[in-house]
Amino acid sequence: MTPLLEVIDLSKHFGGVQAVQNLSFAVREGEILGLIGPNGAGKSTVFNLINGVFRPDGGRIVLRGTEITGEPPYRVAKHGVARAHQIVQPLAGLSVLENCTVGACFGRENLPLTAAGAVAREVVDEVGLADQADTIAGQLTTAGKKRLELARALSARPYLLLLDEVLAGLNPTETERMIDILRRIRGRGVAILMIEHVMRAIMSLSDRIVVLSLGTKLAEGTPSQVANDPSVITAYLGDARLMQEAGKS
Amino acid sequence: MWRRPFPWLIAIVALAFALIPYFGDDVQLRESLLLAAIYVILASNLNLMIGYAGYVNFGNIVFFGLGGYVCVYLVSEWSWPLLPAALAGGIFVSVLALLFGLGILRLRGAFFALATIGVSEAIKQLVTNFEPWGGATGIYLSLEAYTPLGGPMQALWTTYLLVIVVMAASLFLSYAIKNSKFGLGLLAIGQNEDAAATLGVPTPLYKSLVYSTSGFLPAVAGGLYFFKTGIIEPNSAFNLGLSVEAIVMVMLGGQGTIIGPAIGAFVYEEMRGILLTAESFSHFQLVIAGILLLVIVMFAPGGLVGLVHRRWPVTRRWLE
Amino acid sequence: MIVILASVIDGVLIGAVYGLAAMGLTLIWGVMKVINLAHGIIIVLGMFALYFLATGLGLPPYGAVPVVITLGFVLGVALYWIAVHRIIGQPELMSLLATFAVNMVLVGLGTALWSTSPYNVPVSLPGVSWRDYTFTGTHLMAALLAAVIAGLLYLLLYHTRVGKAIRAVAGNREAAELSGIPTTRILAAAFGLGVALAAVSGTLIATMFPFTVLSGEAYQLKSFVVTVLGGLGNPAGALLGGIALGLVEGLATPFMPVSWIPIIEFGLFVLCLIVFPRGIFALSKA
Asked: Measured between alpha carbons, how far is B312 from C1 in angstroms, rounded to an integer?
C-alpha cells in the first residue's frame, strides 16, 4: 500500500546547525502518526519542510505519489496538506466562520465562496464553535483559538493534517474533548501527523510513533514499542517522569 | 433592498452628485464635487491595497499621473476620442503594474512599501526626460480636442459625469471584491500573510492582482481629469503630496471598509479647505496631516467608520 | 583614468558616511522590526543642527558631532515613546504609517521653519594632494569620523552590558524579557541610537555639501539601498554596503548627469530587493 506521505532522506541546516539530518519516515492513509522528541529535536522544522515554509537542503517529500519537495505553502495546501500551528495564527480581524471559510476556499477542494461557507459552517458545528461562529477570532480564549486553528485546517478537507501541539495548555476537559475530535477525524479517513508533548494523549491516540532526537530518527514503532525502547528512554533522561507517564498508557 | 442596502446607497449618492450641479448649472459646485470625486476614487482604490491586503502603496499617485499622460497623449497626438483614450490609459497602467508587481510583490509588506516610495520619484524623473511626452513642459491640449464632445463647455460637463461614473465604479469595485473569494483571500493576507499562504491563498498572485486592479480606475480618472484640465506636466501629474493625502484619507475614513475611504476623502477635503483659508495654518498642512495620521494609527486604527462600529455595534451589519 | 580613480576614492570616502546613516536604519530594524520612515528628515535635522551650532552658536564644526549624537539620541528616545511604543507588535502596516506620520510632521515643520532654500556650512580643512588631484579635507575628515563612530558603535554593541542587552532583545525579545532585561527601555535606547546615527551622518554630510529641507529624501533612498545591500539588521554590512554604494556613485559620476543617479539607485534598490533580499553579504538568520 503506497503511504500517504513519504519523507525521504530529508535534511535541513540553518547557519551552522543541522536541524534535520537524513530523516525518513512515512505516514499511512488514515493513521495517526505521533512525532515526539525532546525540545530542539527538529519536529517543528519537519513540519515547516513538509508544508513548504522552508526548502530542504536535501531529500524528498512525496504526497500520494506526487513530489511536493520545496513547493511553496499555498501549493502544498492545494495538494491536500493542512496545518494547525503550535503558536496559534488566527486571522484575528475575521470571524470564526470567515476563518474557516478561508480554509475551505483555498484548501484542497478550492471551493467557490458560497460552497466554502457551507463547509465552514459544518466544521464549526463539529468542533463545537457553533455558538461563536460570528465572534471575531481575536476575541476568543486561547482554547477557543486552538479549536479554531484545528477547525480552519479541517475546513480545507485535507488528506493529511499536521497538528503542532494542539493539546498544549488545555485543561483536562478540553483535552478530552480535543482527543475525541481527533479520533472522529481519523475515523473519516484523514491522516494525522501530530507533534505533542502531552505524553499520555499522544501515546493513546497514535497508531504509530516516530521519535526524533537532534534531527535524526531515534526510533519508530507502536507506542508500546517506543516506550520500552532504551535509546528513547535515554534521550528523555531529563524527562524521566514523562517516560514514566508514557509507560503507563 | 433592505438586506444589502449598501449598493443602492452608492447608486443614490452618485446620482445626487451627478444631478445636483447639473440641474443648477452650478459650475463652482461641479468643480469642487469633481475634485471630491477624484479623491474618493484615489482613496477607494488605494484602500484595496491598504485596507484589504495590508500593503501600503506610497506611490499610488503614479497610476493617476501615468493614466493621465497616456490619455492626453493619445488624444493630442493620435486624435483618439476621450473614452477609448482614458480606458487605454487604465489598461496600460494596470498591465505595467501587474508586471512590476509580479517582481516587487514577492516581498513582504515593509519592503514593498519601500519600493513604492521611490517609484513615484523615479517615474516622475523618467517622464520629465521623455521627449515624446513633452519632457518637462508636458502636453497642451488644443481647443480642437474638445470639439468631438461638443466644445469646451459641454466637454467639461461630460468629463464630470464620466468621473462620477468612475467614482461609483470604484465603490462598486470595493464592494464586489470584498464579497468575493478574491477579496476573502486578500483580507486573509492582510491579517496574517504566512497563515494565509499555509491555508492555500496564492499570495504572490493575489498581491500582484490587487496592485494592478487598484491602478486601473485611478488611471482612467487621471485621463479624464487631465483631459478636462487641458494640460499635463510632470509636477501636476505626479504630485507626491497627493499620494500621502490619499493614505491619510483611507486611514481617516476607515481602512478595510467600503465607504470609509470615501468618508475620509470628504472629511479630509473639508478640513483642508478650512485650514488653507486660516492663514496661520496653511504652512502647517503637512504637519497637521501627519499628526492626524499618527493619532489615527495609535488610537483609532479603524478610522471614523471603526469608531462608529465600536460605539454602535449594530452598525457593523450595514455600514461597511 | 586618474579622474575616475580619484572619483572612486572620493566616492568611497563619502560612502563611509552613507554607511553610517544606513547603520542607524538597520539597527532599528534589526532590534524591533520597524522601518523608520522618518530616517531622511532626521538626517536633515542633523544637517541643520550643524548649521545652527556652527554659524549660530559659533561652535567649531566638528565639535558639533558629539552634541548632535547626544541630541539625536534624546530625540530618538522621545520619538520612540511618542510614536513607536504603542505599535510594536502590531501589523507592519501600522509601524510603517506611524513612522511615516512622524516624517510628515517633521518635514512639515522643517519646511515651515526653513522653507526649501539651500543652506550651507562653510568648513575649510586643508586637503591631501596626490599627483594632480587634491582630496577634499572635509571628505577625508567625514570618512574618518564615520569610521570612528562605527568603531564606537561596535564597542558599544559587543563590549558593554547595554550592547549585549540590545543584541539579546534583537535576537528574541521574549527570552530577553524572561532573563530580566528591561526590554522596553532597551527598545527606546536602540531607537535613540539609530536616530543618533542618522542625525550625525547628516551633520557630516553638511560639512561637505549644501543642503535643503528636502535633501533627506535622496539620502533616505541611499540608506535603503545600502541597508538592503548589506542585509537588514546587519550594521557591519551596512557600513560595507555604504562604501560599496559610494564606490558605484564614484564610478558613475564622471559619466552621467547627476539627475540620473537617484533613478539608478532606485533601480539598484528594487533589483537588490528582488535578487538579494537578504543582502549580498547574506548572513542568513533563518
From this structure: 73
